[in-house]
Amino acid sequence: MPNHVHLLVQPLDDALSSRMQRLLISFTRAIHAKYGRLGALFQRQFPAVAVENDDQLIHLSATIHRNPVEAGLAARAEAWQYSSCREYLGVRQGRLPQPGVVLHLCGGRRGYRGLLNGGLGEAATGLEHVILED
Q1: Which of 13, 65, 92, 99 could cross-link to 77 by cystine, CB 3.0-4.6 Å?
Q2: Which is it for the CA torsion 106, 130, 50, 126, positive or negative?
Q3: pTM (2 decimals)?
C-alpha cells in the first residue's frame, strides 16, 4: 500500500518483535540511502495479531490481498504488483511467500481466487476482533 504494509508471518520462535525491529530499521536505512532522507518513516510500532484458527488465517490473508481493491488502487487483487497475491494464485513465481497452508485450507488456488473475487462477505464474520490498524 502507498502508506503502509501488511505482513502475514509465522514466527518460528518468540523473537517476532526484535526481528520486525531489525527489518524495519534495515528498510528505513535503505530508503534513506536511496532517497537521501532523514528521520522516521513509521509513526508507531507495528500492530500484531495472533491468528487463532484456520478460518482466521484464510480470511486474514484474503483481507490483506483485497486491501488494494478496497482502497480503489486496483481492480482485482492480483493486479496490485506490490502484493504476494500473484504468488498465491500461481501467476508469478516468488521466493518469499509460502502460500501452501492457506491454499490447502481454502481448496487450492481456485478456492482462494473465489474468495478474493467474491469478497469476504459473511466469511469475515470471525474477524471482528482483529485490529489491523489503530
Answers
A1: 65
A2: negative
A3: 0.78
Which region holds residue 13: left if phi is over 0, alpha if psi is between -120 and 50, else beta?
A: beta
Task: Determine the Cα angle at 112 with ends 107 and 113, to 5°.
Answer: 130
Instruction: Tell which residue, 130, 60, 67, 128, has the closest CA to residue 99.
Output: 60
User: For residue 57, which of 1, 127, 133 has the smallest C-alpha distance?
Assistant: 127
Q: Are 51 and 11 in contact (CB under 8 A)?
A: no
Rounded CA gap, 93 and 115, in Å?
21
Cα dihedral 129, 130, 132, 134 in deg (nearest 10):
20
User: pLDDT tens digits, residue range 27-73?
Assistant: 999 999 999 999 988 888 878 888 999 999 999 999 999 999 999 99
